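Good morning C.,

I know you're traveling, so I'll keep this short. The sequence:
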Amino acid sequence: MWILVVGPEGAAQRKDGCVALLRELGAELRFVRYFEDVELRVMAEEPPSVIVVEAGESLEISLRALEQLRERSQLRDVGTVLALSIDQLRQLSPAADVDELLLTPPLPTELLYRIRRAEWRRADYATDEEIKVGEIRLHTESERVTERGRKVSLTQQEFALLRFFLENRGRVFSRQQILERVWGEDYAGGVRTVDVHVRRLRMKLGSTMKSLETVRGQGYRMRGH
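The tokens, ready to paste straight into the viewer:
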């Protein structure tokens, strides 16, 4: 098992950087610069256990580099740690496709902890039951949702509603039926709660939610695939 560290030019020589700390800790690692072609290095052996990305001076560039790596099938399910400054953390979108965050300069104990967390998260995902409809993939145990490979951040109730629709494709349900099955019979809110959450799902998942139809006078139906 080895760790892939990705960063800007000179990151491997920084005494307080992730590469130096991991070497001190005795970890097996490879360092590559942003957008460097790592295909031969990765394809020649088993994939890394974790990808650590150092944001350096540009958060935007580091996220683009990570996105490029994610396009490689052998790296798609590898856990990720993003090392960034406190100012960059303020700029980071909640929808960013990273498993763990690490503030720089990193502490050795926290770096190890974040790496282990990223490994654990992905190992947990691997045992999940996956529901796949079109471009949407839903992992039932980890409550993780991706759309065209992009991680989608959902609230617990949004996740429960999406799972209900995916597991009951082809059937029409009234708002009251959905409310009782997803929120529970004792829920005190009104049926418009369903409409609000459906709008949020459509906003977050975009065109991939076209298969969720509003059936006039009846409720909602997720078309079967």
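Safe travels,
E.
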